[in-house]
Amino acid sequence: MAQYFELHPDNPQPRLLKQAVALLAGGGVLAVPTDSSYALACHLDDKAAADRLRQVRGVDERHHLTLLCRDLSELSTYARVDNRQYRLLKAGTPGPYTFILEATREVPRRVSHPSRKTIGLRVPDHPALQQLLELHGAPLLATTLIPRGEDEPLNDAQEIRTRYEKQVAGVLDAGACPLEPTTVVDLTPMGSGGAAEVLREGRGDPAALGL
Dihedrals φ, ψ of 39, to 5°? Predict the structure, then answer.
């Protein structure tokens, strides 16, 4: 049965977040709120947890997973970023954007895209998730919580608890999230002089990035 954490939306209780971090350390998959919709998240370096995350979400190894980072400096540890890419990243973080970049060696090969060696990265703008990341001390591997066979992400913690209580280790309830996934922007063409490409338009406005 999933543990259920009721968090204050603006000032989440550190005691509860530390319990959630302990679940991550033990290999658990959590349902966490973000500034777009809910996401499934787990420890980056735990292969079994990553496999479990994909199983719950119903995706294979070709599905782009995302690293949730605390800030831009942490993001640049896990992705190769040039000056043009950095300016665009700075305009969109923190916020509801996922950026596709070339992964560095810090990213386990099993979680980067198998043919492109790329990874999705984002810096979320959500108090509970930001504090969870801070207490965890490292990025989390994540994917938008869209049920198998459905098109829309989930944004209500009570519904997630009902539907996934036997599949995840914990659910963080900090109030309802927006019902849109992130806007996904591929920055890899910029590395060879090309232009960034919007792969999915979601909650983040591409115009805010000049796209």
Answer: -135, 160
- Evaluate the omega torsion of the peptide bond into residue 96 and state whether it is cis, within 30 degrees of 0: no
pLDDT digits (tens, 9 = 90+) for 104-158: 988 887 777 666 788 899 999 999 999 999 999 999 999 999 998 888 888 899 9
Q: How far apart (Å, rounded) are the C-alpha atoms in residues 65 and 142? A: 6
Token pair 């108090």 in the structure block, residue: 127
Residue 104 CB-density burial (10 A; 0-12 exposed, 13-18 middle, 19+ buried): middle
Q: What is the pLDDT of residues 44-62, one digit of tens each?
A: 989 999 999 999 998 877 7
Kindly report the average pLDDT of the chain as a whole number: 91
- What does the radius of gyration of the chain's CA atoms come to, in whole angstroms? 16
Q: Read off the tokens for 167.
A: 């599949």
Proportion of the chain in helix, strand, coil states, percent, rounded to 5: 30, 20, 45
d(CA 183, CA 205): 7
Contacts of 55 (CB under 8 A, 6+ apart): none
**All residues at 6 or more sequence positions from 164 whose CB lies less than 8 Å from its CB, including other chains:** 2, 31, 56, 171
CB-CB contact of 168 with 56 (8 Å)? yes
Architecture of the domain defined by 3-209: Alpha-Beta Complex (3.90)
